[in-house]
């Protein structure tokens, strides 16, 4: 998988440069952990029942001068990290960054919920230490749909342009990663991902327009696609969590994991 992603990123960056959309590039995918090789992480990912990928807009870089970044190392210390970078990664692993805390809580909810356990936000919060340990050991993927870093707020017109110009490459990245839980943090991303599947495979749940069930023609469920708030959206902390979980609970009630 690693080699396939690197080849894809090379193609993506070249096209981005040729299109005049910037030369800096964000690499992404399954987040790495300390004391675990990429091979071990990949094996764990593909043996995980619920492979969760969260599709973000673009990587925020507050400085005017942009740089290439690999967000797969947000949780893993590397040889090139200075003391500031190491301190930031400790905060990331400890869920002291609200953006990552919200993601961690949602990953726990989607991974643990079943027909008997709803895992509302307040309930997840009572298990913070378990969630933190899970977050730092369980594989999950973060994917930036616009690989050129941004400065915070991304105009919908620009996001739409990148989804149009690089949508085939985003589809290829998902085919390489093979997630079966895809959380789209924008209605534009959600629309693009849902339309990338043959529409005869796409099913809905009445009253729940923010989830699409992708059925495998051979039987079973190929993927669940969710339309979500962005984890950096201002407001109550449970908004991002419940914005996805309410639809997942409906899926469990109406369809179930075994069908």
Please specify the SSE layout and strand pairing.
Layout (H helix, E strand, L loop, with lengths): L1 H17 L7 E2 L1 E2 L7 H10 L4 E5 L12 E2 L12 H11 L4 H15 L8 H5 L2 H8 L5 E4 L11 H22 L3 E4 L2 H9 L6 E4 L2 E8 L5 E7 L10 H17 L5
Helix pairs in contact: 1-7, 4-6, 4-9, 7-8
Short description:
With 259 residues, the chain is α/β, with parallel strands linked by helices. It has nine helices and nine strands.
Structure report:
It is built from nine helices and nine strands. It is an alpha/beta fold and 259 residues long. The chain has one domain. A seven-stranded mixed β-sheet has the order 2-5-3-6-9-8-7. A two-stranded parallel ribbon has the order 1-4. A hairpin with a 5-residue loop joins β8 and β9. α4 packs across α6 and α7 packs across α8. The two termini are 28 Å apart. 31% of the residues are buried.
Number of domains: 1
Mean pLDDT: 95
Q: Summarize the biggest pleated sheet.
A: 7 strands, mixed
Structural class: alpha/beta
Number of helices: 9
Low-confidence stretches: none
In N-to-C order, the SSE pattern is HEEHEEHHHHEHEHEEEH
Instruction: Tell me the distance between the termini.
Output: 28 Å
- What's the Cα radius of gyration? 18 Å
Helix fraction?
Answer: 40-55%
């Amino acid at each position: 998988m690693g080699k396939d992603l690197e080849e894809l990123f090379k193609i993506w960056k070249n096209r981005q440069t040729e299109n005049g959309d910037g030369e800096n590039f964000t690499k992404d995918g399954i987040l790495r952990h300390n004391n675990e090789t990429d091979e071990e992480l990949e094996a764990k990912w593909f043996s995980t029942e619920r492979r969760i990928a969260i599709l973000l807009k673009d990587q925020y870089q507050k400085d005017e001068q942009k740089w290439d970044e690999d967000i797969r190392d947000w949780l893993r210390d590397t040889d090139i990290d200075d003391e500031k970078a190491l301190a930031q990664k400790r905060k990331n692993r400890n869920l002291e960054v609200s953006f990552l805390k919200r993601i961690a809580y949602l990953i726990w909810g989607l991974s643990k919920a079943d027909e008997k356990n709803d895992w509302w936000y307040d309930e997840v919060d009572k298990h913070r230490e378990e969630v933190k340990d899970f977050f730092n050991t369980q594989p999950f993927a973060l994917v930036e749909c616009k690989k050129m870093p941004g400065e915070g707020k991304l105009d919908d017109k620009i996001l739409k342009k990148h989804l149009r110009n690089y949508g085939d490459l985003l589809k290829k990245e998902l085919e390489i990663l093979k997630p079966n839980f895809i959380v789209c943090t924008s209605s534009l991303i959600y629309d693009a991902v849902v339309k990338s599947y043959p529409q005869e495979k796409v099913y809905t749940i009445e009253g729940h327009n923010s989830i699409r069930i992708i059925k495998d023609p051979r039987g079973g469920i190929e993927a669940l696609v969710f339309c979500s708030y962005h984890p950096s959206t201002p407001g109550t902390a449970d908004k991002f969590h419940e914005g996805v979980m309410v639809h997942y609970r409906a899926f469990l009630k109406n369809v179930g994991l075994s069908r």
